[in-house]
Amino acid sequence: MSNAFVNPLAPKKPSVIEAARRIKGWTRALLKIDDATVVSINELACHVPGCPPRETVILVMAGPTDTRQFSIHKAMADVTCEDVDAVVADGQSRA
Predict the structure, then answer these.
(1) Using one digit for the tens of pLDDT, what is the confidence trace for 11-50?
(2) Is residue 3 part of a domain?
(3) For the whole model, what pTM was predicted?
(4) Which domain holds residue 53?
(5) Cys bridge to 84: 10, 26, 59, 73, which one at CB 3.0-4.6 A?
């Protein structure tokens, strides 16, 4: 019998972690954000009709009343720097 603990909530692929780090880096660079500002990257299922099955959500939290949200209708692994640049430039979600 194995005593090894397997965390069922652990990320399945290391590429998800790498993709989140890349997207955070691009977001920080494009918005010229300092390290005190929290940037959170999440991949969610999109339930809007006609929406691709995965959506990447970028939250930029500079303070209790200063939070911005950007959505890119792609899986995290498929998001490019150009996607982040476009969504940040116009402040709206991108497909």
Answers:
(1) 566 688 899 999 999 999 999 998 889 999 999 997 778 8
(2) no
(3) 0.77
(4) 14-90
(5) 26
